[in-house]
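Subject: Sanity check before I submit

Could someone independently write out the structure tokens for this chain? I want to compare against mine line by line before I put it in a report. The sequence has 563 residues.
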Amino acid sequence: MLGRLSEEPDSSQLNFKTLISALSPQIQQIPFKMKKLSVGDALSLLAAVKRRFGYEKREKYGSFLQIMKDFKAERIDARDVKLRVYELLDGHEDLISRFNIFLPTEYEIKLPLDRDDDDDEQQEGRMLETKDAFAFLEKVKDVFHDKNREKYDEFLEIVKDFKFRRIDISVVAARVNELFQGHTDLIFGVNAFLPKKYRITTSVQLDTGEVMNNIQDGCKISWDMLDVISRDLDFDDLFQFAGVCKNWREFHKIYWKKFLALQEPLLIQKSSHDKKSFSFISIADRKVYHSKTINQFWHVAYSGCSSGYLIMTGDNNSFLLLNPFTRRKKVINTSTFKVNSSYFAYHVLLAFGKGSEEFVLVASCKRSGSLYVYQSRNLGWVTYSTMESPWKVVDFVVLHHTIYVVTDKANIGVLDLNSTNIKFLELKSTPDVTSTSLLRMVSCDGQLLLIHIASEEILNVYKIDFSTMNYIKLETLGDIALFYASGEYFNALSNPRRWGFESNSLYAINLSSTTCIVCLGDDNELPKYIKDDRFRVPPKENAYLLDWCFRHLQYEVDLSPDE
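---
Independent answer below. Compare away.
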């Protein structure tokens, strides 16, 4: 039951009085155009709205896109855009502020700088002005004046009844809701003048679903625009982005294929215990990609990155293989040996069969010196034990579809995937190694390189010449950069200048610092060795895990049986 109307309207009615004041015979259409700003400005705003509403309130993001589409197709004018955006983004003043830069100053949505909750309705009355009411009345007139003139007249009667206090604001909302059924744009418009507690919601919610379906069926944002949007999204957002519609899904396939093909290395950063998050850092672009998908595995011990997969060990005697770029996950259990679940307990290599989904996981246990190999084609583990051998395998790489290993004695062999044997090459010479030498391998640009750290400070690099079966000592790396992590292993990249790195250089990351240290060589010598700090305790306040990730390198091996 409605109470008696007061002599003076309360503060919740102030905004609707703005609409009443527009009932003037001198209504004129005021020219109105959006400001001309860059495409980047528009897409930056679109990406911000996507982040705010793209998941839990997807229909709001869809509605925002529909407003922009309607304006572009000239189904609504800029005044309608303002009213509908005001309604849609209510409560998100940062987004409204960003949207205001597209509106002429005299038509900006007024934002109170300091607003108490008790003052909300009074402030709302100052956000929309008489010119906004004029524009809305013109819209109603355009919709109903010819074929449904009686509806336009009825709307005028509703406003007049309120003006002369024959009805209150709740009755206005109910009558307008019934009158404007099927005209969502008008409901959006009138809602902008109503206080929050009386705004019309039922029909708007139903229509929002239809709008979202329409967007999914035919969202035709140009690919140039999609490219700009995608650059502002994280890994998880990009996969959600692909689910909007067919057009976006097709764009995502091509965009992602190109993204994975890039050779730029990313830094893997695992945060401190307080934040518990994974992220990827592009040094060249100074961009950070976050991933919520990986965060759920924060407690799992990290061993390394190979073929784009993060390889980790857990307490359930298994290896977890997770590719954050394709969202593929593999879990490999074992009863052959006890899996060590501490950080960098294993050196790992993941390789796929040529032209197949079959894969091989090679894991070298640093504690026992044993080499474990898993093959998906037979779901089994094989142990290459080195306990009784005069050598142990210290590194392995893939070159020309073959897994090469190097021992602590600088012997190089081929891992036979069809047996438990290592077939060693008959090399005519080997470097002089000692018990303190560190030997590592990289494959780069079709070459197999051996890295020899002597006396923990001198860097030597050798190339394996397969035609002469000799080690050839290099004076410089040429057009190659080395990437080292305190997990003790190296990666290599040819033509590094494409990604902002220098040739004949060494880039090192360590546990005790989030700084990437760079050492450059010259035309006549190699870069200096940067001593690692693998025995130091990482700082608690900063990232305590750093590693290199070459997302484009999917190693392929020959899994065919021997003749």
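---
OP: Matches mine. For the report I'm noting this point. The first helix runs from residue 14 to 20.
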